[in-house]
Amino acid sequence: MFGKLIGFAKRFARDEDGAFLVEFSITFPVLILLSFGLLEFSLVVFDYQRAAEATRRGVRLAIIQPPIPNTANLLIDEVIVCTAPGGTVECTGGSPYDDAATPEVEADILFAALLARMQQAYPTLTSNNIIITFEGTNVGSAEDIGGVFPLVTLQLTGVVHEMIVGHLIGIEQIEFPDFKASVLGNGKWVNTA
Known about the structure:
The protein has helices spanning 2-14, 19-64, 107-121; strands at 79-83, 90-93, 130-136, 150-156, 160-162, 173-175, 179-184. It is α+β, with helices and mostly antiparallel strands and 193 residues long. It has a 5-stranded antiparallel β-sheet with strand order 2-1-3-4-7.
């Protein structure tokens, strides 16, 4: 009887029928986590690229369409910053004797068109994510017909990527750094309603 038990133990030690199942049960969860991790990383990179493209589109449209503030009398080194919290445009800066920082009547419409164009690249953007700066440069002069050409900078702030698989490890979202794009705009634009 003892000999049968030793024989069974030797056969059991040589038998590898269940080894694959044990190895698979250990490696399968690791492979799944790696696969989903790669998918999540790819989605983060994709959203980052979409936000950069939205910034590029926004600044391009900002110089093609009439400017949101009245930049007709913008002087060298003056800065006008426009935001639209809640969709209503607010501008600050400009010269104290000029109404340059006052958004024009069409400012809300222009900003909404700019936001819609940017949302084609990154649909979850809101007006709260966008800051547009018009800065007087040394290109042109106030006495010229074209006036001072503003450097138009569009900044995208507060853009986040909501994690899909990251919730499993406690990462709810990733906030991207600010995106900026600058292009030299047109001279003496005056928005008239």
